[in-house]
Write a structure and sequence with these properties.
Strand content of chain B: under 5%
Strand content of chain A: under 5%
Largest sheet of chain B: 2 strands, antiparallel
Strand order of the largest sheet of chain B: 1-2
Structural class of chain A: mainly alpha
Largest sheet of chain A: 2 strands, antiparallel
Distance between the termini of chain B: 59 Å
Largest interface: A-B, 46 and 51 residues
Shape of chain B: globular
Order of helices and strands of chain A: EHHHHHHHHHHHHHHEH
Shape of chain A: globular
Radius of gyration of chain B: 20 Å
Number of strands of chain A: 2
Number of strands of chain B: 4
Number of helices of chain A: 15
Helix content of chain B: 55-70%
Order of helices and strands of chain B: HHHHEHEHHHHHHEEHH
Distance between the termini of chain A: 20 Å
Oligomer: heterodimer
Strand order of the largest sheet of chain A: 1-2
Helix content of chain A: 55-70%
Radius of gyration of chain A: 23 Å
Chain lengths: ~375, ~325
Amino acid sequence: MNLPFEIRLEKRTEDVPRWMPALTALGGVIVAFLISAIILKITGGDPLRVGKFFWQATFGSWPTFSDTIVKATPLILVGLACSVAFKMKLWNIGAEGQFYIGAFFASLVVLVPIVPMDSPRWVILGSMIVMGIIGGALWGFIPGYLKAKFNVNEIITTLMLNYVAILWNNFWIFDKWSDAGFQMTPMFDKKAWLPRLADYARQYRAFSGITLHMGVVIGFAAAILVWSIFQRSRWGYEIKLIGDNPDAARYAGLNITRNIVLVMMFSGALAGLAGMSEISGVVHRLQERISPGYGFTGIIVAWLAKLNPFAVIFVSILFGALIVAGREIQPSGLAQLIQGIILFMVISSDVLLRYRIRLIRRKALTA
Amino acid sequence: MNFEIILHAGIATGTILLFATIGELITERSGILNLGVEGMMLVGAMTGFSVSLSSGNPWLGVIMAMLAAGLLGLAHGVVTIHLQSDQVVSGLALTFLGTGLALVFGEGLTGKNPPLIPAWSVPGLAKIPFIGPVFFAQHNVLVYVGYLFIPLVWFFLYKTRPGMHLRAIGEKPEAADTLGVNVYRLRYINTFVGACLAGLAGATISLAVSPGWYSSQTTSGQGWIAIGLVIFAQWDPLRAALGSYLFGALRRGILDLQGPAVLLGFTNPLYINSNWGFFLKMAPYLLVILALVIGSRAAIKKHIGAPAALGVPYVRGERGL
């Protein structure tokens, strides 16, 4: 190739401006959508029509926007879960499994039942939240302990545990709690449902058909909690330090093994909470495929949000929209494809944060 | 339950893991961690199936499967080698991308019947009692390719100069660079080769071992098991081969356990309540975890382990950091 100029990457010595990471991420998303449109064109689709449909199905009206937020809710929690672990460079790829176990544990409250079903609603919902957290934390504890104790690669263990969690769930819904032979448990008592806006349609007509549920409040609360841990607490500072420079952290006397276990449990707890919110707020029973891969999408969400808890909320809404639209767009793998391309583009665009691109004229070089 | 038949099927299933595991092993030995095996396998399985369907030639399918997965691997190469992005995240992105591509382009392939890789018996060897029927009779040809492949990879890695270079750039790229080895180029080549093998593994599924296109169920996590096996094998190709066949036989054996009403003289609990099978299906995944625990302890004892530069981008002129 004989270009009249040479492209050169030069390492940045100065800090990038604060707006730069957001801008490169946005650019990455836009390029990713363009590439997806081209692929859609190749497979014989009509990108413009799909795009228009995409908008209408996700942000077009109040009920559809509410659907988008409903799908974004578990993503917020799972995205936070991944952010927490990634901050310490712990690759928790197991949010999917932690989500399922969280949902399973929360269901136990109703199915066993752990608290009597005639207790007040807040007792039932409260114990479901606690159980969801315990379940997720437990599923995060296993890989955390193995990593801390035996230095077992957490990427593989968390992933393997995803499959185990889904099979575990399947056993109970196919066998013990199967509803008349169907692969789902009976519908939960209404007291175990997170309040939805639609429940108040009688008082406020505008709320009819709006499926938005309380889970989104739990998501926001969790985001604030994670933010304050990282900005305001000593523990958050320790996690960041271990993630950025484990050697320095070790010299400073931080207990790395204990933090590995704790962070994995915290991460798992957030993912488990997402599972609870989903079955109590949306599905209202334990069944197969309660997650269309939230745990994995959460990884992308966390990365795209640069591990910032508030950015996680916005990115989750974008991906919630992708899931809502993806349910109806053909071919079915398109949403996943777009997610993959987005992640690829975003990590590629990160190079702009570390390097500046210089175009150098060849003439000047040879002269 | 016929033991010979189960082992025979296990060897075939193990061949899938063999290609994927050895491919990932080669890539990791050069210092690049590619977690996208699952995605590349799916793309391989879909491409092989689709090309064989449209061209009528399964071998062309295999070649195109390898190329398609190899291209995906190159994308990972560009992002991690030149742009120095995080290899873990890039690998995950590759998984999503590969899965998405395979689902989009594989739309409508389910239920089709393309020509498959033919089965073949090795003359003479197939007659040996027990060993013959298990290893050398009526296997698809790719199984035999697998047999030949293991010693070749071992010889390449440990007895040839390019193999030594490959190991060197995974352990200490800056030292290799000073000796005139082109680290970047070699890493690209090995990422490509590893990805091609993942594609081959995919095509082995869809065109030979369990023919068909079942969207993302086609691979059902075998790519991830392969990555686990690389760690279990401590980056040794012979151990990787052994592990692959063992896990293959295990996956297969689990399916076969659910069939008969009487098992080893006892009533088969799976026959009465097939839902117990869910626990049995957990076994491969739990065993990968167990294998990793055992492998990690052995690694600590013997001071062996991952290639030293695995996952670390190499930047010329920044050595010694």
